[in-house]
Design brief:
With 415 residues, the protein is α+β, with helices and mostly antiparallel strands. It has helices spanning 2-16, 20-37, 59-66, 73-93, 97-100, 103-123, 130-141, 147-166, 171-241, 246-272, 279-292, 308-329, 363-374, and strands at residues 296-302, 333-340, 344-351, 378-383, 389-396, 411-413. The protein has a six-stranded mixed sheet with strand order 4-5-3-2-1-6. The chain is built from 13 helices and six strands. Helix content is 64%, strand content 10%. β4 and β5 form a beta hairpin.
C-alpha cells in the first residue's frame, strides 16, 4: 500500500514537472487547431444548395395557385414544377466547370428561359418574379464575354414583359433581373479565383517542401560521402601504421575523431539550412584526404577573392570530386586548379586514374550540375584528353565588387 501511494505521488510529481515551455507549446498548438477549424476556408466553396433558398421568391405564385386565383391551375402547376426542376438542375451543374460548359446545361438554361417567359406572359403579377430567378441561373452558368450581352438582353426582355403585364409597377423586375445576373456571376467568379489561388498556394508549398528535401538529400550525400571516405582512408592508414609506428597511428586516430566531430557540426548546419562551405577549407580537406589515400595532390588558386555563394558552390564541387577520386579512380596524382576573373570563376579537377567516361555521372555530380545551372554556371565531367577523369565547373561572379579586391593570388601546394 505504501509503495502504491509513493508511485502515485511520483507520477503526479512528474506530470506537474512539465516545463512552462512545454505547456505553452501545447496551448499554442491547441489554439492553432481551434483557429484552423474556425477559418472560413474550411467551410468549403459554394455549391448548388446555396442557390435553393432563392426559390422562395416564387412562393407568391404558389400561394395564388393554391388559393385558386390563377387561371388554368393544372397548366400553371405543371409550369411551376418544370421551372423548379430546370432551375435546380442548372444551378447544381453550374458549380462544376465541365458540367457548366456542357451542351445539356446550356439547353436546360434555354428551356428554363422559355418556361419563364411563358409563365410571365401567361400570368403576369407574382409570376414575373421568376425573371430574377432566371437571372440567378444565367449568372451561375455564363462566364466571360457571353455574360454582359445575355444579362442585358434578359433585363430588357423582363422590362418589356413586365411593362406589358403590369405597367410601371413592374419596373423593379428588370433591375432585379440585371442585379441577379451580375452579382451572381461576380460572386461565383471570385469564389473560383480564390479556389485556384488556394490550390496554387498549396502547390507552391509542396514544391518548396520538395526543394528543401532535395537540398537536404544532396547536402547529406555530399557531407557523408566525403566524411566516410576520409574516415575509411584514415582507418586503413591506422591499421597499416599500428604495428610499426604507434604514435603515427594515434595521430590518424585523432584525425578520425576530429573528422567525426566536424561531420556532426556540418550535418547540424545542413539540417538548419545555414551551411555555407568555404572553398579554402574544402581545398585543404581535399588535399588531406588525397594525401591520406596516397594520392599526390597539386592545388593552384589564382584570381580575385570569390563571393560567398560562388565559393560555397565550388567548395561542394571540390568535396564531391575529391571523394570520387579516392573512391573510384585508382589515381596516383590529382590536380585542382581555381582560376578567376572579374566576370567568371573556373574550377578544373583532373586525375590520372582509370576514368569513368563509360558510366553515367553519380547522383552527387548530377545534383551539383543542377545547382550550378540554377546559379548561372555549368558543370561538366568526363574522361580527360590525356587519360584519367576531369571535372570542370564555371560560375559567374554573383556579387558586385568581388573583382575589386587585392590583385591575383597564385598559390601552389604540394604535400
Amino acid at each position: 500500500m505504501k509503495t502504491s501511494v509513493q508511485d502515485f505521488w511520483r507520477r503526479n510529481v512528474r506530470l506537474a514537472g512539465w516545463s512552462r515551455t512545454s505547456r505553452d507549446q501545447l496551448a499554442e498548438m491547441r489554439a492553432k487547431e481551434r483557429s484552423a477549424r474556425s477559418r472560413p476556408e474550411d467551410l468549403g466553396p459554394p455549391n448548388g444548395f446555396a442557390m435553393l433558398p432563392w426559390l422562395l421568391m416564387g412562393m407568391g405564385s404558389f400561394s395564388n395557385l393554391l388559393q385558386g386565383k390563377t387561371g388554368n391551375p393544372w397548366l400553371a402547376g405543371l409550369g411551376l414544377l418544370v421551372f423548379n426542376s430546370l432551375y435546380i438542375n442548372v444551378v447544381f451543374r453550374a458549380f462544376t466547370r465541365q458540367a457548366r460548359e456542357a451542351r445539356v446545361t446550356r439547353r436546360s438554361l434555354l428551356a428554363l428561359t422559355a418556361v419563364t417567359f411563358a409563365l410571365a406572359i401567361g400570368y403576369g403579377d407574382s409570376w414575373l418574379m421568376f425573371f430574377p430567378l432566371l437571372g440567378l441561373a444565367t449568372g451561375a452558368v455564363l462566364r466571360g464575354k457571353q455574360l454582359i450581352p445575355a444579362g442585358f438582353a434578359l433585363s430588357v426582355s423582363a422590362a418589356i414583359v413586365g411593362g406589358l403585364k403590369e405597367g410601371w409597377d413592374a419596373a423593379g423586375i428588370a433591375y432585379g433581373t440585371f442585379l441577379s445576373v451580375m452579382v451572381t456571376a461576380a460572386i461565383l467568379a471570385l469564389s473560383e479565383t480564390v479556389k485556384e489561388l488556394r490550390s496554387t498556394r498549396e502547390e507552391l508549398a509542396r514544391s518548396a517542401v520538395e526543394k528543401e528535401r532535395l537540398r537536404f538529400s544532396r547536402d547529406l550525400h555530399d557531407l557523408l560521402g566525403h566524411t566516410l571516405s576520409v574516415i575509411v582512408v584514415k582507418a586503413e592508414a591506422t591499421r597499416r601504421l599500428a604495428p610499426r609506428d604507434l604514435d603515427a597511428a594515434l595521430g590518424q586516430v585523432a584525425d578520425i575523431e576530429s573528422v567525426g566531430r566536424q561531420a556532426l557540426t556540418e550535418i547540424r548546419e545542413a539540417v538548419t539550412g545555414y551551411r555555407e562551405g568555404s572553398l579554402a577549407t574544402e581545398l585543404d580537406r581535399a588535399r588531406d584526404l588525397l594525401d591520406a589515400a596516397g594520392i599526390e595532390a597539386l592545388v593552384r588558386q589564382s584570381g580575385p577573392p570569390l563571393a560567398p555563394q560562388t565559393a560555397a558552390l565550388l567548395g561542394w564541387v571540390v568535396r564531391e570530386s575529391a571523394t570520387n577520386v579516392v573512391r573510384h579512380s585508382g589515381a596516383t596524382r590529382c590536380e585542382i586548379e581555381v582560376a578567376g576573373t572579374a566576370e567568371r570563376t573556373r574550377l578544373l579537377i583532373t586525375d590520372d586514374g582509370r576514368g569513368v567516361g563509360s558510366a553515367p555521372p553519380g547522383s552527387g555530380l548530377t545534383g551539383l550540375a543542377e545547382r550550378l545551372a540554377a546559379a548561372g554556371g555549368f558543370l561538366e565531367s568526363g574522361p580527360a584528353p590525356r587519360g584519367g577523369f576531369r571535372v570542370a565547373a564555371e560560375l559567374p561572379v554573383t556579387e558586385p565588387g568581388t573583382g575589386s579586391g587585392p590583385g591575383p593570388v597564385l598559390e601552389e601546394r604540394i604535400p
